[in-house]
Write a structure and sequence with these properties.
The protein is an alpha/beta fold and 233 residues long. It has helices at 10-23, 35-44, 61-67, 84-87, 102-110, 113-119, 122-132, 175-181, 221-231, and strands at 2-6, 27-32, 49-53, 73-78, 94-97, 133-138, 141-146, 150-156, 159-164, 168-171, 187-191, 194-197, 201-205, 208-211, 215-218. The chain has a 5-stranded parallel beta sheet. β8 (150-156) and β9 (159-164) form a beta hairpin. It is elongated and about 65 Å long.
């Protein structure tokens, strides 16, 4: 995704630039210290995402949201919590309260994914829907599950458990099979016995990952460095 930063404080600009660079999926196109210059840029260029401060010179971030004719995804960044409720009137993706961690930054970006799935073109959407449909071999049956509904996958002796919001599916396929099958999506192996859906992460604390207010998954020692460097650096 292409993005721009609208932020008048150089230290805050540097933090956002570092997080964007470390995350590796976003391409920063420009940085602006006021919203009017950004508006002129957006008349000629299109972007997918804006990181927008609220307290800006000339016009505020909230006023900027009011007059934008077409809004890309917006993540607000501010040191003031007072505008949180007001900001959601403009359908912002998230509200990051400064100073925020890289972990919190990732959580905000992950909130965009469901919206992207809804707005892709019909041709691409059709292809991606096929990609996300998985067939779980359970005994003599093959059960269809959409990958976005999977919270985590657990290895248990001779089978694997695919955990969704509705139920747990038992599969005769090994965990390695699912690691390879889901390698191009938002799934990562964090333990010899677990694969998690990173879009379901609520928080990471110590050696534990908390998913969807329901699961506490340990981070294996041999997987920790790669996971932390990619998602929590």
């Amino acid at each position: 995704m292409n993005c721009i930063i609208i932020e008048d404080q150089p230290p805050a600009q540097r933090i956002l630039k570092k997080y964007i660079d470390d995350f590796g999926v976003l391409e920063l196109k420009a940085t602006f210290s006021n919203a009017l210059d950004a508006m002129e840029y957006l008349k000629k260029e299109s972007v997918d995402l804006i990181f927008l401060d609220i307290h800006l010179p000339k016009i505020s971030g909230i006023d900027f949201l009011k007059i934008m004719p077409q809004k890309p995804f917006v993540i607000l960044t501010t040191a003031f919590p007072d505008y949180a409720i007001k900001s959601y009137e403009f359908s912002v993706i998230d509200y990051l309260l400064k100073p925020f961690s890289f972990q919190r930054f990732i959580m905000a970006i992950n909130k965009i994914k469901p919206h992207i799935n809804k707005t892709t073109s019909s041709e691409n959407s059709s292809h991606k829907e096929e990609d996300r449909d998985l067939y779980i071999k359970s005994g003599h049956d093959f059960i269809k599950v959409n990958s976005k509904d999977i919270i985590c996958i657990k290895s248990d002796a001779d089978y694997t458990e695919i955990h969704t919001y509705e139920k747990v599916h038992l599969s005769s396929e090994a965990l390695k099979h699912w690691e390879e099958k889901l390698s191009d999506q938002s799934f990562v192996r964090i333990h010899k016995s677990y694969i998690i859906n990173t879009s379901k992460i609520d928080k990471i604390s110590g050696n534990m990952v908390f998913l969807s207010s329901k699961y506490e998954i340990p981070i294996g020692r041999s997987y920790k460095d790669a996971f932390i460097n990619k998602y929590v650096h």
